[in-house]
Amino acid sequence: MTPLKNRFAQFEKSTRGFWGVQKKTLFSWLLFDFANTSFSVMMVTFAFPLYFKNVICEGEPRGDALWGASLGISMLIVAVISPVLGAAADFSGRRKRFLFVFTLFSVVATALLGLTGPGMVVIAVVLFVVANAGFEGGLVFYDAYLPEIASERSIGRVSGYGFAMGYLGALAILLLLFPLLKEGIVIENMQNVTLSFFLVALFFAVFAAPLFFVLRDEKKTAVNMHFVGRSIREVKYTISHIMSYPDLARFLLAFFFYNDAILTIIGFSSIYAQNTLGFTSGELIIFFMVVQTTAIFGSVIFGVITDKIGPKRTIVLTLIIWCVVIMMAIATTDKLFFYYTGLLAGMSMGSSKAASRSMMARLTPPKHVTEFFGFYDGTFGKASAIAGPVIFGVISSLAGDQRIALASLLLFFVIGLFLILGVRSRAAYANDAAMVDGGDYL
């Protein structure tokens, strides 16, 4: 063997295990998105909102208010605890353990929702709050792995792949549960509906499991009360100094507004389609399948676009698309046109989230990655989900027309668009960051 071939053989041997580990880690990370989006589409967007109003609340008008309150409470919990737990995960190096606990709470509570029935309002609200807080809280730790898994050049693409896998999981669970739900989410079909909740929990658990076998914690130190106090002090420090990073602060504020509108659309889409446009349960399943399909392609395509033109320009493009979606949804009077609206919404839904996650990853200092993602996913992301549903519900109630409430969301997108336009390029931002904390952002 020639010296050149010998060196190449040694290099290949030494890197074979590394690339195998990297591929397994990436695939298991993507598979987790495949798993948890089944919860999102079934328990937040489609089946459980209708089950909660039609069956648990027995069709009473208070169902809308209680549903909005359940969403708001679960998001408020995550908004409050995420920054502290994010800092705790950074200090302890036990990010995987936090992710596992939140995932376990979500899976178990989802399964227990399969035992709820008519009149069990309080129990259903408590279980849903636990399930959704577990799901949303886990995303803080899950998203924080992105800068470690992807290189800077591929971070937009990998983020897009993650959302694409998520929507593929949503499509898979809808196909799987179609036979159980096609007869309607009503009391007469309650047994099949509750069985579907058990299957969602099982789906979530099975496909999330590989991530916990592949990932390894750093195990820097044990968690104790002194440690928690240190985490709280670190969060206070972050809040007091976040304005030292004007572009990060501006991006987070922009994200607060446009994510508010996106989450409100997701949370009330099934109720809007059924109440305003008269969709049946079977038609809704088909509609959401269409939305998930375009979301898959949108996430992948815009993930590549993000790496080409940058996350800021991609976010601006998707926000313009969202404004068009809102105007189309308001103007539509028939179901067929609403399908076209869903196609466009699906394309922009995953892409806007993927580009936002890429933007946050690029602006986040490495040593505070989980804590800052706690602010991104928790404080700003979840707090926006508190305001949106409440405002939508109040306007809908006062105006007596969901179309007017939907039109109000345009304001949130416009504000978000205005703010994101003022965020400077990463190069300019990095110079400011270097002066603040010695170059953590470089």
TrEMBL record:
Span of domain Major facilitator superfamily (MFS) profile: 26-428
Any GO CC annotation of this UniProt entry: endomembrane system
InterPro entries registered for this protein in UniProt: Atg22-like, ATG22/LtaA_families, MFS_dom, MFS_trans_sf
Protein topology in the membrane: Multi-pass membrane protein
Listed name of the protein: MFS transporter
Source lineage: Bacteria, Pseudomonadati, Chlorobiota, Chlorobiia, Chlorobiales
Transmembrane among keywords: yes
A UniProt-annotated Pfam family: ATG22
Alphabetically ordered keywords of this record: Membrane, Transmembrane, Transmembrane helix, Transport
Subcellular location, record wording: Endomembrane system
Top-level taxon of the source organism: Bacteria
PROSITE patterns documented for this protein: MFS
Membrane-spanning residues: 26-52, 64-86, 98-115, 121-146, 158-181, 193-215, 251-272, 284-305, 314-331, 337-355, 375-398, 404-423
Keyword Membrane: yes
